[in-house]
Every structure is written in structure tokens, then in C-alpha cells.
């Protein structure tokens, strides 16, 4: 193949622009990214060679080498892994296959400056080479292909790249960085050694550098022909916990996840027994940009006896823990395990159950810690991932109780961080239910008329404003034997919290107001299922509620917003017999206008919208002018 020029996919051009403009504050990460690609390439070769040992050709020992040419000012990252064919080089180094790329770009905003954190999280991988290089040449040959079928890919990282066929004797890939004018630092062996030590020590393959000796004549270190290994070259998770520092754990996480922030917590265990495996699992500090996508695969890598098998092994972690990152290395699974086999394997099920329990324990120890810093970490976790964890209530029945204990809410007593256990501990004497209200926002929840009686009596109500809360309520019916009760559903029944005198007053008012209620029912017969007297209101004249078994108005709105159909259930209007407006209804000349306005206002107060706002305005104006 003669030389061909190709244009980068538009998204790659944007990434390249970002890389060179936003990441220079932490330049050295380019080496971590390229070494990690080299290590992945070796993992892939080892995996493919399980079925075809010939791929190893005559070099079964896999390694990564860093070569420096001080005259040409190049740094080469060489691996003898799987390599790339010409087509693969064009596809992999010219496009971004990752799903969600477009969404990601949109999140960066129009100026495309982005912040380094977000970009780091997305993982610029190969393109990070352009932070320090003004040209990158890749020479590669895929394992199994002929020596004449090597490929040279080259680009200055602007709009285009060139590809041509070359002879390449050794299998694998050379990534040759032509360093920018002011990047001589990366030609120094000590500098490379220190970066490898910092970011890539855990890489399980040897990373080799030419040994240098001091040359007195030249007054400089010069390279010899001997190679030396500069990393520990044993997979981090296989080492004893006591030999691993916090920094090493954190760096390993950063390589796994491309996150530039340290994780919140990790758990590292060797599990023995019926199923034998090692797990090293992390909870990130920040949610990834595509956390909301339930199709997002959990970020756990599967290894079998230290051989990499696959990324994102969904079967190893339930969907609601898809934010967890890490590695699971099984001693029992066969090396040629397929996705299909994973789905059926009892060992995999045992691993998933064990790992789920570990992650929940990790969260529990943060949440229940006496140490404020740990508690704050849990608060941070909840902010980032709480909504996803709630999915577990419906997904993982076995652990429902543990998950319920990890939930945190706002309430009428505290603006955040209220657990169900806190709530239960604060329940009033005689209180039988955990009261909740759902709304679109905290402000809407806090000012809901339905809360008035609870406020007056000092009874705490949980304010649920997350989009998944309605769904959560359909799975979580009780906690420690106390039912969760929506204050916007059914007639308010405070049970033992209401004294006899109050009950009697209500009955009497209902009797006295009967004629008025009948008139209201008649006026509102198209809109309200029923009209009744209530004691739940203190300052407001009226509110709307739905029956116990009906869908809440909030959920119906959410469904409609999401373009789904929701039943048009009529609410019940409850009126406050003590309120001046309600008292004024009796014998009012514009009874119908007032009744309709009362109903419209009740809808508005609980966050609803009016079907006919213009009619409402006209009625209010008529009343104002009367
Ligand atoms: N040394 C290498 N040997 C073989 N293939 C490589 C090598 N480096 C990169 N590639 C190929 O190029 C692709 C793109 O690499 P890049 O680093 O941009 O992203 P990635 O590794 O897929 O994703 P991430 O960096 O987020 O893990 C890789 O998926 C791989 O197929």
C-alpha cells in the first residue's frame, strides 16, 4: 500500500484539540496512557493465544520497552502484544468507538474547553501522546500477519493522518513520540523511571529501560545495551495488602478508570472456599458522565488466573452498582470463558453475590463511621450515586434491607442526610408510619399545604424530590416494620397522634359543612372525584389528594414529561373548614368562580399545572373586581 492520507473523525479532532489545550498541567500522564495501551495489547495477545499459540511466534515473553533517541529527540513505547493491521490502525487511531462520545462532547459546552477532570474521566488514551509530541508515528504488525504486512501510521495531531504498509520483523507496536521543542525532560531515563514508578508500577508486565552509566568524558549518563526492569511487574491485586501503599492503590484506580481524582474507598480481598477469587473494587468520588445510562456496563475487569479476559464484565456486578470499578481475578473459571458461559456459571453468581456484599459493607463502613471525614465521604457518595443505589431496592431483593439503611433524604427536620433509622428513632409516641411527600423540587415539597398539620404537630416528613423516588416507593413499602405513607394520598389518618377532641371536631365540621360540600361537589363534578373536610390544613384553604391506590399526581407528571401515558385520575379536594375563604363560600354570589379558583390553587400549590390557565386568570379577575 502506498501512502494514504485520512481525515480524523470530527470527535477525534475535538479530543485532540482538548488534549493539547487542557491537559498540559499534568503532562506526564501521557506515559501512563500509552503504557496502559501497551499492556492491554499484551493482555489481548495472551487471550487470543489461548486458542492459537502460534500467535506468540518465537517471542512468548511479553514486555514493554521505553526507548530514547536523544539525537532524533524521540521517545518510543514498544510492546510485543497483539499489534494492529492497517485497517485496525485506521479504525482505532482515527475514530473513537466509545459510546456516549457525542453526549460527552455536548457536556463540555460550546467552547470545548472542558475541565481536565471530565476529560480525564473520558480517557483520552492514545491521543494524550500529543500533549508532549508534535508528531506521533506508530509502527505496528498484528500477531499472525506476515512480516510484510506491517503498518506505519503518522500524524501531527491536527486534521489528518497518513498510513502506509511497511516491513516489520517483530510483532507488536512501536508508538514513537517526536517530542515538542520544550519536552526534553522525557528523554531522561531518570524522569521516565520516576513516572513509571508513580503511575505504572502495578502493570503486571515488565517495563524495560536501557541501563545508563556515567560517562566522565561526556560528563553525562549514556545508555548501555543492557535492559533493566523498572517496575515491580506483578499485578497489584496479587500482592499482599500490607505491601501496597494507599498511593499505589489510588494510582491503580486512576489507570483503571481514567479518573484524575482519587477514589473514595476500596476493598481488596482474597476469597477462598467454594469459589476462589481475588477482588479489588473501588468506589469513585465522582459520577461518570454516562452514569444515567442503565446500559452502561459495570466497570469491572475480569481476569482468570491473572490472564485478562474482558473489560466491563456485567455479570460480575449488579446494574445498580455500575459505578464500581475494579478487578476480579478468578481461580476457578476456565480461561476460555465466554459471555454466554458467564451468564450461566455458578461461580460467577457466587462472585457477584460476594462482590455485592463487599461493596455494601464498604458503603456501610463509611456511612456508619464515627469519623467525620468518613461520614463526609459517604455524604459525597450519596450525592453522586444515591439515585443509582436506590435502583437496588427493586433489583436486589436479597439486599433490600441493607440498601434501605443506606438511603439518605431531606426532611422537614433536616435539609439532608436523614436515614430511615434516624427517622424511626425520632418518631413521635404513637406514630405508626414513616411519612413522605414526593415533589419536583425541595422548595415545592417544603411549601406543600399537605405538610401543614405535620408541621403543627412537629411530626417529621421525608421530602422526596429525586426522579426515581416514586419508583423507589413502589418497591420499598416499609422499614423496620413501619409502613412508608405518602401524605398526599388518602385521607390523612394520624391515628393515635390525633386526639379525641380533634376527631370529634372533624366529625362535627363534616356534618355542619355537608350542604356546602354538596354544592362544591356539584360545581367541581367534572374535576374532583370527591370533596371533603380535612384537618391536615392549617394555613391553606384547600389541597388535592389522590386515593391510596391511585398514582400520585407527581408520578403522573413525571410519566407525562417522559412521553409516557398516565391515567387521568381525578383527585379529591380537601377543604379547611377553619379557613376564611372556605367560610366565605357559603352564600357567595360567585360561588362557582370561587370553587373553581380554590381547586386550581390547590393544584398549583402541590406543583401541578392548570389545563386552562386563561380561564383561571379570568375567574380571579372577576373575583377581584366584584
Ligand atoms: N499499543 C497498542 N497495541 C495495539 N493496539 C493499540 C495500541 N494502542 C492503541 N491501540 C488500539 O487503539 C485503540 C484506541 O486507543 P485509545 O487509547 O485511544 O483508547 P482505548 O484504549 O480503547 O480506551 P481507553 O484509553 O479509554 O481505555 C485501542 O482500543 C486499541 O484497539
UniProtKB/TrEMBL annotation:
Residues 558-626 are annotated as: C. ATP binds at residues 33, 37, 79, 84, 98-100, 121-126, 173, 339. The keyword Nucleotide-binding applies. GO terms for molecular function: ATP binding; ATP hydrolysis activity; ATP-dependent protein folding chaperone; unfolded protein binding. Keywords: ATP-binding, Chaperone, Cytoplasm, Nucleotide-binding, Stress response. One of its GO terms (cellular component) is cytoplasm. It is found in: Cytoplasm. InterPro entries: HATPase_C_sf (IPR036890), Heat_shock_protein_90_CS (IPR019805), HSP90_C (IPR037196), Hsp90_fam (IPR001404), Hsp90_N (IPR020575), Ribosomal_Su5_D2-typ_SF (IPR020568). Pfam families: HATPase_c_3, HSP90. Residues 1-339 are annotated as: A. Molecular chaperone. Has ATPase activity. Belongs to the heat shock protein 90 family. This is Chaperone protein HtpG. It comes from Inhella crocodyli. The gene is htpG.
Amino acid at each position: 500500500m502506498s501512502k494514504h492520507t485520512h481525515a480524523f473523525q470530527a470527535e477525534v479532532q475535538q479530543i485532540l484539540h482538548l488534549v493539547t489545550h487542557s491537559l498540559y498541567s499534568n503532562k506526564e500522564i501521557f506515559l501512563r496512557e500509552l503504557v496502559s495501551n501497551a499492556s492491554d495489547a499484551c493482555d489481548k495477545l495472551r487471550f487470543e493465544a489461548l486458542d492459537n499459540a502460534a500467535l506468540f511466534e518465537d517471542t512468548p515473553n511479553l514486555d514493554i520497552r521505553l526507548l530514547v533517541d536523544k539525537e532524533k529527540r524521540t521517545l518510543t513505547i514498544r510492546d510485543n502484544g497483539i499489534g494492529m493491521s492497517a485497517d485496525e490502525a485506521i479504525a482505532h487511531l482515527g475514530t473513537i468507538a466509545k459510546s456516549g462520545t457525542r453526549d460527552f462532547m455536548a457536556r463540555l459546552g460550546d467552547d470545548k474547553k472542558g475541565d481536565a477532570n471530565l476529560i480525564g474521566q473520558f480517557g483520552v488514551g492514545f491521543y494524550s501522546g500529543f500533549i508532549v509530541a508534535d508528531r506521533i508515528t506508530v509502527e505496528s504488525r498484528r500477531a499472525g500477519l506476515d512480516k510484510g504486512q506491517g503498518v506505519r501510521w503518522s500524524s501531527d495531531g491536527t486534521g489528518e493522518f497518513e498510513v502506509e504498509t511497511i516491513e516489520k520483523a517483530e510483532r507488536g507496536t512501536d508508538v514513537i513520540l517526536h517530542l515538542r521543542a520544550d519536552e526534553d525532560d522525557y528523554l531522561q531515563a531518570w524522569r521516565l523511571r520516576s513516572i513509571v514508578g508513580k503511575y505504572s508500577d502495578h502493570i503486571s508486565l515488565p517495563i524495560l529501560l536501557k541501563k545508563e552509566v556515567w560517562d566522565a568524558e561526556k560528563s553525562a549518563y549514556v545508555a548501555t545495551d543492557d535492559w533493566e526492569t523498572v517496575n515491580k511487574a506483578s499485578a497489584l491485586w496479587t500482592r499482599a495488602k500490607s505491601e501496597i501503599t494507599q498511593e499505589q492503590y489510588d494510582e491503580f484506580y486512576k489507570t483503571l478508570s481514567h479518573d484524575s481524582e482519587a477514589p473514595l474507598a476500596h476493598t481488596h480481598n482474597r476469597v477462598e472456599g467454594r469459589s476462589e477469587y481475588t477482588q479489588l473494587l473501588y468506589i469513585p468520588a465522582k459520577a461518570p458522565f454516562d452514569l444515567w445510562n442503565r446500559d452502561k456496563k459495570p466497570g469491572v475487569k475480569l481476569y482468570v488466573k491473572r490472564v485478562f479476559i474482558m473489560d466491563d464484565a456485567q455479570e460480575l456486578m449488579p446494574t445498580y452498582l455500575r459505578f464500581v470499578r475494579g478487578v476480579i481475578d478468578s481461580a476457578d473459571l476456565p480461561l476460555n470463558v465466554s459471555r454466554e458461559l458467564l451468564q450461566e456459571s455458578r461461580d460467577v453468581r457466587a462472585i457477584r453475590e460476594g462482590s455485592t456484599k463487599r461493596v455494601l459493607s464498604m458503603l456501610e463502613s463509611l456511612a456508619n463511621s464515627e469519623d467525620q471525614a468518613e461520614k463526609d465521604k459517604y455524604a459525597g457518595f450519596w450525592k453522586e450515586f444515591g439515585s443509582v443505589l436506590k435502583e437496588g431496592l427493586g433489583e436486589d431483593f436479597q439486599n433490600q434491607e441493607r440498601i434501605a439503611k443506606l438511603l439518605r433524604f431531606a426532611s422537614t427536620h433536616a435539609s439532608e442526610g436523614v436515614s430511615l433509622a434516624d427517622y424511626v428513632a425520632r418518631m413521635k409516641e404513637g406514630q405508626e408510619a414513616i411519612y413522605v411527600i414526593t415533589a419536583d423540587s425541595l422548595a415545592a415539597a417544603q411549601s406543600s399545604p399537605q405538610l401543614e398539620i405535620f408541621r403543627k404537630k412537629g411530626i417529621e416528613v421525608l421530602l422526596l424530590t429525586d426522579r426515581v423516588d416514586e419508583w423507589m416507593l413502589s418497591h420499598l413499602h416499609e422499614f423496620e416494620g413501619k409502613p412508608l405513607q405518602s401524605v398526599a394520598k388518602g385521607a390523612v389518618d394520624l391515628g393515635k397522634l390525633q386526639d379525641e377532641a380533634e376527631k370529634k371536631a372533624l366529625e362535627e365540621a363534616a356534618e355542619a359543612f355537608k350542604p356546602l360540600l354538596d354544592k362544591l361537589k356539584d360545581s367541581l363534578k367534572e374535576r374532583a372525584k370527591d370533596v371533603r373536610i380535612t384537618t391536615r390544613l392549617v394555613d391553606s384553604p384547600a389541597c388535592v389528594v389522590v386515593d391510596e391506590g391511585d398514582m400520585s399526581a407527581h408520578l403522573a407528571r413525571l410519566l407525562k414529561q417522559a412521553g409516557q401515558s398516565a391515567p387521568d385520575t381525578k383527585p379529591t379536594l380537601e377543604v379547611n373548614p377553619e379557613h376564611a375563604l372556605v367560610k366565605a363560600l357559603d352564600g357567595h354570589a360567585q360561588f362557582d368562580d370561587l370553587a373553581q379558583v380554590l381547586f386550581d390553587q390547590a393544584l398549583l400549590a402541590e406543583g401541578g399545572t392548570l389545563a386552562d390557565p386563561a380561564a383561571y386568570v379570568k375567574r380571579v379577575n372577576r373575583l377581584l373586581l366584584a
